[in-house]
Amino acid sequence: MRAFDTLPPVCRVAEVRAIEAAASGQALMERAGAAAAQAAQAMLAERAGPVVVLAGPGNNGGDGLVVARRLHEAFHDVVVVFRGDAGKLPPDAARAYAAWREAGGDCTSALPPRRPALVVDALYGIGLGRPLAPRDAEMVQWANAQDAPVLALDVPTGLNAETGIATAPAVRATRTTTFIALKPGLLTGAGPDLCGRVDVDALGLDVRDASGRALAWPPLARALPEVLLRRTRSVHKGTFGTLLVVGGAAGMLGAPLLAGRAALRCGAGRVRIGWIADDAPAVDPGVPELMLREAGAVLADGGDALVLGCGLGTSPAARDALGRAVDADVPLVLDADALNLLAGDPALRARVRSRGAATVATPHPAEAGRLLGKDVAGVQHDRLAAAQSIAAALRSHVVLKGAGSVIVHPDGAWAINRSGNPALACAGTGDVLAGLVGALLAQGLDAATALEFGVCLHGAAADELVARGAGPVGVLASEVADAARDLVNRAARAHEARGSASGQ
Predict the structure, then answer these.
(1) How high is the pLDDT of residue 239?
(2) Residue 503 — pLDDT band, cuts 50, 70, 90?
(3) What is the C-alpha to C-alpha distance for residues 77 and 66, in angstroms, rounded to an integer?
(4) Which of 85, 169, 73, 189 is nearest to 121 (CA)?
(5) What is the dihedral of CA 50, 56, 58, 60, to 10 degrees?
(6) 180 and 227 assigned to the same domain
(7) Which runs of E-coded beta strand occur in 216-368?
(8) Any domain includes 504
(9) 243 and 439 in contact (C-beta within 8 Å)?
(10) Which residue among 122, 169, 173, 405 sits deepest, i.e. has the most Cβ atoms within 10 Å of its Cβ?
(11) Distance CA 246, CA 204 (A)
(12) What 3-state DSSP class applies to 214?
């Protein structure tokens, strides 16, 4: 088991339904309502006005009715807006409705004129698979228009819990309390923009067998890979591997340089850049430590890992370099134009599938679409499914980049990254990511861990820059590489300090 397998679980909707079916529904609803009521009280602070619970016609509405009852019992002013038919509520929600009424609570179909202190979105949760009816859309629009925090139960209404696709209007929550486990839609697509802060309450259930995991920098920093800690005095540059970076067609020479510079900053012992362009420079004045040669010579030299595609172009020389890279018996990162070339060459894709060494593919949505024969909207409609399809087709480790980057491995394991921010929406950051992952592979890390750690480190570096006040506007890709180096060294020092403390 890898260290990353201890990270928070992410469940697909079908998994959540199966877990719910195996447990006591009413007990779960009470636990969910209690957890959400606790979050609601923390959000209320000293705010004046009523708590408005928007209760839907299903079990999410039942959770909201439990929240309403709990807050009422804690002497809060609570207004429940319910536009459904109480006689058609599911059994558990019907019992929650009866308990609310027995506690002295009432329901109204009218939105209150008073300014609320808090809005609780308990309309639909994970169950919504269609556009909202006009009366429900009115409640969502009202919630979004209030000058008050919004607490969403399980999933903000309008957000698809499986895919992260939002159907307008969708609730913009300040905080989301989700139950049992994280869901993919909370972490990718529109989810990070709509959910606000996300808290998870497992409701006392065992979800260790969930199919996915959520990546975040703090736990990964505590589980820093050994290759980044192995800095004894007897090491030398060969200890940390040689990475080959091949790309750089005319007009795109900066891309492989960014990847190579990032690789050096993430600990690779040596980095050799192989140019596709005929008139490429012989030295990088910014980082003269990089070794620059023609692509064929670099591929002939061999190394411990290979990154191919950054600024590669689609010329015959680029296609030849890709074929040689695919046949190399070292871990291989395929990025950018390498993926575009693969998309148009079924025979080459078959050679990728049959590779003995690990392959990592790092597409953005447009590149993923070319590999799958879809447009960008088709990829974004279900990012996890798209990444799974590419991983299966190429028998590769895949990251589908974007908000909530999705990682899928050849064995079917998957993860969604939670680090990162809009600072990464600039040219060159994908090249930096390829270099970070390549550096980890060159140092001997297995491909699954290298990809997960590299993706999370990449996002965390952008978060670090924003925390310093250097972004998100105007961050450069090269700055991301510098911040990544800082984070790795800080994590290594913290690891060393913990080791010293435990030895005392």
Answers:
(1) 86
(2) low
(3) 14
(4) 169
(5) -50
(6) no
(7) 242-247, 270-275, 291-294, 305-308, 332-334, 359-361
(8) no
(9) yes
(10) 122
(11) 50
(12) strand
